[in-house]
Amino acid sequence: MSKTDVTLDTSDVDRWVGVPLGGGELRDPVAPTDIRRWAQGMQNANPLYYDDDFAAESRFGRLVAPQSFAVATDVGHGATPAIQGVIPGSHMLFGGDEWWFMGGRIEPGDSISLERMLFDYRVTDTSFAGPTMFSRGDTTYINQRGEILAKQRSTSIRYLVEEAQKRAKFEADDPEPKWTDAQLDDLDQQQFDYYSEIQSRGHARRLWTSVEEGTTLPVRLIGPHSIQSFTTEWRAYNMNIWGAQRYRGISSTNEAGWLDEMSRDMNRMQVVPSLGDGLYKGPSRGHVQQRYAQLIGMPRGYGYGASMGAWILDYLSNWAGEWATIVHSNAQFRAPALTGDVTSLTGTVTGKEIDPDTGEHMVEVLFTMMDQLEAVMAKGKAQIALPVE
């Protein structure tokens, strides 16, 4: 079948564009251990997010969530508004995240409500799966005081599984990298050095005046990734805990045209909750089960797009320090983290300005995420407000 013979029927998607959406939401307020579990799951050893004594001496005076934690207060990784309308025989991958932060931070005791809407979509031909839909959906995060904390515009890549299997962009027999003990020790040491610098900096301010264009951020390494690390990430999202979520309003995400093997059993899960757990049975099982990874066109277990987005935000926040705020970040994802791979994050300051509207002193950072072979996994830019004194 030539690519001209393959079509992607988006007619059911059209009726969802611009429609206010419901979906899953968490029942309970944020607990301190939710934040600690998130830091652990994202492998972010910044003590501000798990050490009570360190956090008590910070500008916040208590444990506080990293800016990346907003996505953990959603049900669906912030991607559900970008997965609306039925496309039979389809699956999805994350294509990127754009974030706007309004300055407030999530703290223990906060209850987060969500507003969602499918923003737009386009269909283009890709080497991975032929006709592919890139759909963007917005999630707005609001605390119990009615304060808007953040807005996320997530891009979902929706494609026909059968076509991805035919094209075999990722070879099914692609071997998992093998690491020697010496290499693993070196990776451990580099990660130790990265977090040692963060902890030795303590609560010091990174001043706008001390940063120059061309300044490079230290390299952050994550991995090697494994089934264990991907599972730890999955369990850092509270939405996956039995009974932690409820559904309100309208949303078609659970009936988006998933393959039977990648669908949640929404009826039987009322008796056996694990039948609705995406990691055991449902859209996420390919992340940790090679059989289902290959079913949807991936070679082996692969990481979560929402976690890639969190790694980026944590990387920027760790460099900028607790007195800074990420105002905006826009990341395009190009390839997943696979089991056995090591992810590296690098960044460079590419600009400085004073925002004419807010007076905030901003730096622009260009960031890149790569694997151990220097294949680009994600790229983007962020604007960060730094203190001046």
Describe it:
There is one protein chain. The chain has 389 residues and is an alpha+beta fold. It has a single domain (3-386), classed as Hotdog Thioesterase (Thiol Ester Dehydrase, Chain A, Roll), CATH 3.10.129. The chain is built from eight helices and twelve strands. The protein has helices spanning 11-14, 32-41, 52-56, 161-167, 181-201, 227-235, 290-295, 305-320; strands spanning 20-21, 23-26, 90-101, 113-126, 130-142, 148-160, 216-222, 245-248, 325-333, 343-354, 361-370, 376-386. The strands form two sheets. It has a ten-stranded antiparallel β-sheet with strand order 1-4-5-6-3-9-12-11-10-7. A two-stranded antiparallel sheet has the order 2-8. It is globular and about 60 Å long. The chain starts with 10 loop residues before the first helix and ends with a strand. 42% of the residues are buried. The model has no long low-confidence stretch (mean pLDDT 92).
Helix-strand makeup class: alpha+beta
Count of alpha and pi helical runs: 8
Tally of discrete structural domains: 1
Distance between the termini: 64 Å
The Cα radius of gyration reads 21 Å
Instruction: Describe the largest sheet.
Output: 10 strands, antiparallel
Oligomeric state as shown? single chain
What is the element layout, followed by pairings?
Layout: H1 11-14, E1 20-21, E2 23-26, H2 32-41, H3 52-56, E3 90-101, E4 113-126, E5 130-142, E6 148-160, H4 161-167, H5 181-201, E7 216-222, H6 227-235, E8 245-248, H7 290-295, H8 305-320, E9 325-333, E10 343-354, E11 361-370, E12 376-386
Antiparallel strand pairs: 1-4, 2-8, 3-6, 3-9, 4-5, 5-6, 7-10, 9-12, 10-11, 11-12
